[in-house]
Specification:
This protein has 222 residues and is of the alpha+beta class. The protein is built from 8 helices and 11 strands. The strands form 3 sheets. The protein has a 5-stranded antiparallel β-sheet with strand order 4-5-6-7-8. It has a 3-stranded parallel β-sheet with strand order 1-2-3, sandwiched between helices. The chain has a 3-stranded antiparallel β-sheet with strand order 9-11-10. α6 crosses α8 (181-198). The longest helix has 18 residues, at 181-198. It starts with a helix and ends in a 6-residue tail after the last strand.
Length: 222
């Protein structure tokens, strides 16, 4: 999604050289309509007409579970954290080399392959881990893992970026909406339960004082 015609033409030509077909949308409604063409990944510019701040990201994440890479000129840390917390799978700052963009697209598709089944359910697959967002089922190496609703939500946040540390504040904000001692204690309890259920093929590691990261066998290495 990009509204600058010159940028669109250049990016389309460069990506085509790497064998990537591009569908262009200059507004949010056009992007939503383009989803009918079944694209594999969304490159989202935050500066679209009619969109303020992260509004375009919120809207695209509301209507689609496809991988999203935010493409923007905002390089400050707060913007990066906000973009990832709102559901972006990666964040690349202009200007960038085409080879870097292509590599990031490939990495996102490897670790978060979105698949739609015959029943219309949507699953996130990363290595040996598969999560079905419709049924809230979790499987590891085809073995069903029983998780609670909160455990599923925590795992879904960590699985967006396997191998990356996700801040505790981000998880608490998305799931509980608050940051207080009781919510923090509940998060720790759910993470402890998830660790026990996911072993030995998935591991949730704590980054002391920061947050947690998910390591998945067959996925992103530690």
């Amino acid at each position: 999604m990009e509204d600058d015609a010159r940028v669109v033409a250049l990016e389309r030509r460069l990506l085509a050289a790497h064998g990537i077909e591009v569908i262009v949308a200059g507004t949010i409604p056009q992007a939503v309509a383009a989803l009918s063409a079944d694209p594999g990944i969304i490159l989202l510019d935050l500066s679209l007409p009619g969109a303020v701040g992260f509004q375009s990201l919120r809207e695209m994440r509301r209507v689609s579970q496809l991988p999203i890479i935010v493409v923007t000129g905002r390089s400050d840390g707060d913007s990066v954290v906000q973009g990832l917390s709102l559901g972006a799978d990666d964040y690349i700052v202009k200007p960038f080399a085409t080879r870097e963009l292509v590599a990031r697209m490939a990495a996102v598709l490897r670790r978060c392959a979105m698949k739609t089944g015959l029943d219309g359910s949507v699953a996130l697959v990363s290595g040996d881990l598969q999560m079905d967002y419709t049924t809230r089922c979790v499987t590891v190496r085809s073995e069903s893992i029983q998780v609670t609703r909160k455990e599923f939500e925590i795992l879904a946040i960590l699985a967006r970026l396997p191998g990356a540390v996700i801040r505790r504040e981000q998880i608490l904000g998305e799931i509980w909406g608050v940051f207080d001692p009781s919510a923090a204690h509940s998060l720790e309890s759910h993470v402890t339960a998830l660790r026990r259920k996911l072993r030995p093929h998935c591991e949730i590691k704590a980054a002391r004082g920061i947050g947690y990261k998910l390591l998945v066998a067959g996925g992103v290495p530690s």
